[in-house]
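New here. Invent one.

***
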Amino acid sequence: MGQGTLYRYVDGKRELLDLVFDLCVDELMTAISPDEMLDVMVATDSIEGATRVVGDLGDRLFALADGRPELLKMLLVQAGTVDEELRYRIQGLYQTFDAMTARALDHARERNWVRARTAEPELEGRILGRLVPTLALPGFVLTLTGEADRRSAYVASAATMVRQGILSEAAVAGGRSD
């Protein structure tokens, strides 16, 4: 397709960029099915079930990263450098993931799977809601830099950090909620 033909469908480069960004976000959300994942997480009453849900989410994200690395580059690297409006849209995407994580952590806290570390569980939940998804970013960077073979060791290390630093002793021991 020629450049002139392309501009019959879009008004300019900015509209084209917005369409590409929207396509990337749509593919990401379709791949992870956040509402479905959260419904399954909330329905489970065992830490093993929750662990499977998180593992499935990770598998979906890494499959998307492996199959479409350009999508990951667009969302994590390139789009944020364009302008303030697009940075705000990326921040909105991060806030969506923060809210999803916070909802999953609330469920885990209700079932005594997460240790209470402070007297302010709401603040702690927001901090963990931001921290936990951030643990995935280096794994994606390994994909982008062609080091996907090191990713499994990274994921195992991140899982150990979560198990030892966030989960309650009952959850680590495999206890069920009462």
